[in-house]
Amino acid sequence: MPLQRFCMPLWISLCPSLLVCTFSFRVFRLLLHRLLRGVCTCHFSCSEVHKTGRCPKKEVRIVERTTVRLALPSKGRMAEDTLALLKDCQLSVRKLNPRQYIADISELKNVEVWFQRASDVVRKLRSGDVDMGIVGYDMVREYGKDDEDLIVIHDALGYGQCHLAIGVPSYGIFDNISSISQLAAMPQWTEDRPLRVVTGYTYLGQKFLQENGLKHVQILTADGALEAAPAMGTADAILDLVSSGTTLRENNLKEISGGSVLSSQGVFVANKRALLERKEVLDTAHELLERFEAHLTAESQFTVVANMRGSSPEEVAERILSHTNFPGLQGPTVSPVYTKTSGSVKVDYYAIIICVPKPKLYHAVRQLRKAGGSGVLVSPLTYIFDEETPRYRQMLDALKA
């Protein structure tokens, strides 16, 4: 017998006049729902309780949808850079109108894109309302609160680089303070007069300061313009994201040694349960990782082509491997260059192709010239697809752990 039918006589016996009262059917349903909540307060349906004879102790969200939900930041530089990354990976995010918070990706038929505040991206990943997301690592740590159901599957998307750090005034009682240990040893901080730290990172801030010996601390919350708080006298120090440090210096603040909580940039994060339980989520994560890895690996490299005299491909390859520091991904590609001289076709040159890290380009060109290379051509790379995406293998290993 369904639980609703079992509960109906009980409810009628408790309130015989209910059937003849003027309550609407909607009110009756609400009252019945409240009664049932007293019987079962978990996310399982009452039919599940009837079938098993008990209520599961742990609340588990049952996902019935087949679409994969990807959450992206809705505002700010992180949002712009995320959309740019997806575009570079040949993924077109389409909104029907700019005021909507849901979109799709034409290249990924089963994926819904949900635009959320950065903090809500993490919250909804934890709850299972979305399956994957792109957000700053600082947000994952602050709002994820070390939740084991969150798994970072790509930790370096290449934008939004910054670090979360303590900033103190460069004057007054902090004039000679240059480290976190010195800050903790200052006699000014007592139970009655704690160190006041203003931040938007209350979870990370409290944890970090306690771990570094600061026993008397008061965490104050704020969303913006933190740098003004010490000068106004409303706080002694700040804990905020730092990129170049210019804003700190312009407000007479300084970083201190050991005061960096974490380094952050854009990361690709997922709900661990969704990856384990739903194949469509795992497959989508695989494709996104392949696209991200292929683009980001290629973005840091140049293709370099040069002609080189030699008697054989092996002799030219030996020269490259012995006299340069840039053999390519697995080794140089060597191809014959055919020339026609006096009516006959012969091979005097070989074309070599290597990949070179962008910061090392001019050093590589000098080495190639010294080894006999000429006619050096340089071009950017768009994608480099490996035999297997390393981060996908890392993700699978993490899921097994």
TrEMBL record:
Matches recorded under SUPFAM superfamilies: GlnB-like, Periplasmic binding protein-like II
Keywords on record: Amino-acid biosynthesis, Glycosyltransferase, Histidine biosynthesis, Transferase
Domain ATP phosphoribosyltransferase catalytic: 117-290
Glycosyltransferase found in the keyword field: yes
Enzyme Commission designation: 2.4.2.17
Enzyme type, top EC level: transferase
Residue ranges occupied by any Histidine biosynthesis HisG C-terminal domain in the UniProt entry: 298-382
UniProt xrefs under PROSITE patterns: ATP_P_PHORIBOSYLTR (PS01316)
Catalytic activity: 1-(5-phospho-beta-D-ribosyl)-ATP + diphosphate = 5-phospho-alpha-D-ribose 1-diphosphate + ATP
Superkingdom, taxonomy of origin: Eukaryota
Pathway as given in its UniProt record: Amino-acid biosynthesis; L-histidine biosynthesis; L-histidine from 5-phospho-alpha-D-ribose 1-diphosphate: step 1/9
Record protein name field: ATP phosphoribosyltransferase
Origin species: Sphagnum troendelagicum
